[in-house]
Design brief:
The complex is a heterodimer. Chain A is mainly α. Chain A folds into two domains: about 40 residues; about 230 residues, Orthogonal Bundle (MetI-like fold). Chain A is built from 14 helices and no strands. In chain A, helix 13 crosses helix 14. Chain A is globular. Chain B is an all-alpha fold. Chain B has two domains: about 55 residues, no CATH class; about 240 residues, Orthogonal Bundle (MetI-like fold). Classes of the chains: A mainly alpha, B mainly alpha.
Chain lengths: ~300, ~300
């Protein structure tokens, strides 16, 4: 009797293990395949893609799509702008957010509750699109990249995340001890808090960078010159715009036909080119990112 | 000093004292405070144009006060029902359909027999979070086109081509299931952590009692992450009317307009493309008020259920 119970149990568990493994492999493939397909399609020739020959491996490998992409001035300018906006937002965002988050973590800050309420209120209630648009206009930031950078650099949600981190990781006694030794708030923050908080600073930088690199809303609303467009707005035209072709200034008929033929390849290439920076960054910061999700989930 | 200990200080004096002692901390807060005043509180003051016939040339105060005219116009219009229905159906569908997958993934990962498979799956399922909305919608468009990979695979299976993009009836499914594809790995992280926190002695006791893995998952793991799951679910119902603008706007075309026009895209079109500033502000304000009302209600329910207020 006992023996058969053990056998039954292990038998059940074997089935369970097989089912789990199969489901996990399935989940893995469902997520992986579309990304994999984009990569193989971006280096295959257009005819093979259109005729459905590119399923598991690239066919007739050609880099003509990438050549066209790197010849396109709009892509380069979008790339350059996105890099500038992303790095600025990450730097400004991390600096301002960690400063505010630290100040809010200190319980000897008189008026903390009132100030915090003023901050939290903005998360739930705002003026909305048009009133914000009118303010940006009246302070002269319309059409300026500064509007896009600034609006991607302050997030109350991130301030709260930073605050929870500082509250639980920087003991009160540490500041008391330091202040007895004559260390002021500014020096304490720079020399003690910042070195102890690299994890949260990395998380904040990543949040701001991902938000700025991937977002297009602010650029759509506040920018009007193509020279300032970030990559996402350029991509929008190439991937989703009506023409689907890359350079608008080609007049030669053969060239237009050629363009249309490789338009699909170009789209796949553009997807790769646009996603590489964030995906390349991700393995390095993955450890911190998981931590950030955890801190974010226990806010409040 | 000894006197001040006895006398009760006024808040203002206490504040002044705190500023003198910790002026650096107030300085730390200043930049974000100024930012919020300019970009959040100043627009809040401008929200009064919802009650006026705002003309940019006349300024806010110079424009005529019309009371609730724009609200009446919006609520009396033929499209108001469609806007609310589209917004609510889209977000409720997404909320419910995407709810179980992160939990399932977390449990599968927790019971994975191979360490390598667990690491690879976690890393890969997480990656789409970093793909931008524009790229995601671009991928959908090339994949789901009539000659895209989806229809090619369907063709190989002997199934006819499906017009994914021009069929309005498929808009919601594409929107929601691409969201599930993109976010399941990311949303699973919190459950993975919750599972790691389950008391191992519960599992040991269950093993001694002869429970198999499926029984342990069902009777120990799921009940222990259920509170987290329910809180997250309740919390997200607070955002039912604030479906993101970015993805819907990109996925819109003339053919799916009747199901894809939601409040945020409409506010954008009326306000910035047609320059009907007051009407757009009124719609936005109305939406925001309902949203806050839902949020407060939900918060109260969560408070009663779990004892922890979310706000």
């Amino acid at each position: 009797m006992q023996n058969s119970a053990v056998i039954k149990k292990t038998h059940f568990d074997t089935v369970f293990d097989i089912v789990t493994t199969v489901l996990l492999v399935l989940a893995l493939l469902i997520v992986l395949y579309p990304m994999y397909f984009v990569i193989i399609a971006s280096v295959s020739d257009a005819t093979s893609i259109a005729s459905g020959k590119v399923i598991l491996l690239p066919r007739n490998i050609s880099f003509v799509g990438y050549q066209r992409i790197f010849q396109d001035a709009r892509i380069w300018s979008g790339y350059k702008n996105s890099f500038i906006y992303t790095i600025s937002s990450a730097l400004i965002g991390v600096t301002l957010t960690s400063m505010a988050g630290y100040a809010f973590s200190r319980d000897d800050l008189y008026g903390r509750r009132v100030l915090l309420t003023i901050y939290l209120f903005t998360m739930y209630f705002g003026g909305g699109l048009v009133p914000t648009f009118l303010v940006v206009k009246s302070i002269g930031l319309m059409g300026s990249p500064l509007a896009v950078i600034l609006m991607g650099s302050v997030s109350v949600y991130n301030i709260i995340i930073a605050r929870s981190f500082f509250t639980s990781n920087i003991p009160k006694e540490l500041y008391e001890a330091a202040s007895i030794d004559g260390c002021g708030n500014g020096r304490f923050f720079i020399q003690i808090v910042v070195p102890l908080s690299k994890a949260i600073l990395a998380v904040l930088a990543l949040y701001y960078a991902v938000g700025q690199w991937n977002g297009y809303f602010n650029a759509l609303i506040y920018l009007n010159k193509e020279a300032y467009f970030p990559l996402q707005l350029v991509l929008r035209e190439i991937l989703i715009g009506a023409t689907g072709t890359i350079s608008a200034d080609i007049t030669d008929v053969d060239a237009i036909q050629e363009m249309q033929r490789i338009a699909a390849t170009i789209k796949y290439g553009v997807i790769v080119v646009a996603s590489v920076p964030m995906l390349a960054l991700y393995p390095f910061v993955q450890k911190y990112f998981v931590k950030g999700v955890m801190i974010g989930s226990v806010k409040g | 000093m000894s006197e001040s200990g006895l006398r009760k200080r006024s808040p203002w004096n206490q504040f002044k004292r705190s500023v003198r002692r910790n002026w650096v901390l107030y300085l730390f807060i200043l930049p974000t405070f100024v930012y919020l005043v300019i970009f959040h509180y100043w627009p809040l003051y401008g929200v009064q144009i919802a009650f006026r016939n705002f003309k940019p040339a006349k300024g806010i105060w110079g424009s005529d006060w019309v009371g609730l005219k724009h609200f009446r116009k919006f609520l009396g219009s033929y499209y108001v029902k469609d806007l609310f229905r589209n917004t609510i159906v889209l977000s409720v569908y997404q909320l419910l359909a995407s709810f179980p997958f992160p939990i399932l993934l977390a449990i599968l990962l927790n019971y994975c027999v191979s360490n390598k498979l667990r690491k690879v799956t976690q890393m890969v399922t997480y990656a789409p979070y970093f793909i931008s909305t524009v790229v995601l919608v671009g991928m959908l468009m090339v994949f789901l086109a009539n000659d895209g990979i989806f229809n090619q695979i369907l063709g190989k299976l002997g199934l006819g081509p499906i017009a994914f993009l021009s069929d309005a009836g498929k808009f919601r499914h594409i929107y929601v299931w691409s969201h599930i594809w993109q976010r399941t790995g990311y949303n699973a992280v919190i459950y993975i952590a919750a599972l790691a926190g389950v008391d191992p002695s519960l599992h040991e006791a269950a093993i001694v009692d002869g429970a198999n893995k499926a029984q342990r998952a069902w009777h120990i793991d799921i009940p222990s992450i259920l509170p987290t799951a329910i809180i997250l679910l309740i919390m997200s119902t607070g955002n039912i009317l604030s479906v993101g603008f970015e993805k819907v706007y990109l996925m819109q075309n003339d053919l799916n307009q009747n199901v894809s026009e939601i409040i945020s895209t409409y506010v954008y079109k009326v306000g910035l493309l047609n320059a009907q500033y007051s009407l757009s502000t009124a719609i936005g304000l109305f939406n925001n008020i309902i949203n806050v009302a839902i949020l407060l209600t939900v918060n109260k329910i969560a408070d009663k259920l779990s004892g922890t207020s979310l706000l």
